[in-house]
Amino acid sequence: MKSPVGNPTVELVTDSTVFDIISNTVKNSEQEEPFIVADLADIVYKFKLWKLKMPRVEPFYAVKCNDAPTVLHLLAALGTGFDCASKNEIESVLSIGVEPERIIYANPCKTRGFIKHAANVGVKMMTFDNEMELHKVKALHPDAELVIRIRVDDSSSICQLGVKFGCNVKDVPHLLGVAKKLDLNVIGVSFHVGSNCQDSGAYNSAIESCRHIFDLAEEIGFHMDFLDIGGGFPGFKGPYVSFEEICNVVAESLDEHFPPQCGVRIIAEPGRYFVASAFTLCTNIIAKRETFSEEGDPICMYYVNDGVYGSFNCLMFDHAEVEPIPLVVSSNFSHF
Predict the structure, then answer these.
(1) Which of 15, 118, 131, 207 has its CA 20 to 30 A from that of 172?
(2) Of the ranges 138-142, 204-208, 232-236, which one carries the lowest mean pLDDT score?
(3) Which residues make beta-bridge pairs with 290?
């Protein structure tokens, strides 16, 4: 759900409903370009729901999901932390007054310049999953608070991230040993079950693996007190696993492996959870073509003024499924 390429106009919902704003906008005969309506009240609702269902888990919003300034300002005011994956994302968050302590640099493979920048602006928390990263951090940001990212089962997720990020659990002893020799501070463990997870049980097995790593780290000489359970939380109500179901599994697993009295700080990295249902894209039907298949069946094709190189890039890169909702505003015109 990255901010659309081409930057369609964004209109903010206040007292009106989303479809009231859409209807009033498309009545303007000069309105042909695609535009987006953002329902900020929906984001506030999602924040309240998170605090109600998972009070022990601090949300660190994944900026890569949607970096619209209004979203960042709102979530900062609500008190979330921020998961940043680049120098630009860190700068965007710091520029609105967020303290560096509310940022985790959750990219296990960073350029040397980006690590140096994090050190200069006071961002200490950052992830790693390989030995090279440890040597870069030692040279450029030795005071960093490191979080080892492990690979977990993400086979039930729409977007699987394990091939790209996260070390195998069997490699953890070696990496922690290197960190110890370099005198680096490893404060905890992180994982990501994949974007848009379809199986709540993935969180349970991942949290259980983290418990074993905490115990192993204690033997090596690290006293960990930080757990990052990543993202994967749904942004819409759908036919698969619900947010509430995931919350129940996470809560039970945390109570078993990381009870409140253990003193471990727990965060997560929700992205689409906060913003997916809050944004509505409106496009204009600009052409219609009727033809026939080789079997003689009629085919009707509609053309809209946005596409996979713009707002619909999520179809290719995020495996998203979009739902067209016709909006009839007169007897002669209709919009999506």
Answers:
(1) 118
(2) 232-236
(3) 300
93 or 240, greater pLDDT: 93
DSSP string, 64-82: GG---HHHHHHHHHHT-EE
Could you tell me the two tokens for 202? 């993935």
Which positions are catalytic? 64, 192, 269
Q: How many helices (H) and strands (E) does the chain have?
A: 11, 17
Neighbour-count burial of 331, counting CB atoms closer than 10 A to its CB (0-12 exposed, 13-18 middle, 19+ buried): exposed
CB 34 within 8 A of CB 335: no
Question: With contact defined as beta carbons under 8 Å apart, do 114 and 86 qualify?
Answer: yes
pLDDT at 152: 81
Q: What share of the chain is helix, strand, coil (3-state, %, to 5)?
A: 40, 20, 40
Q: Is the pLDDT of residue 328 over 50?
A: yes
CB atoms within 10 A of CB 120: 10
Sequence-ordered alpha helix ranges (H) in the chain: 18-26, 40-53, 69-78, 87-94, 112-121, 131-140, 172-181, 201-220, 243-257, 272-275, 314-317
Distance CA(183)–CA(188), nearest Å, equals: 15
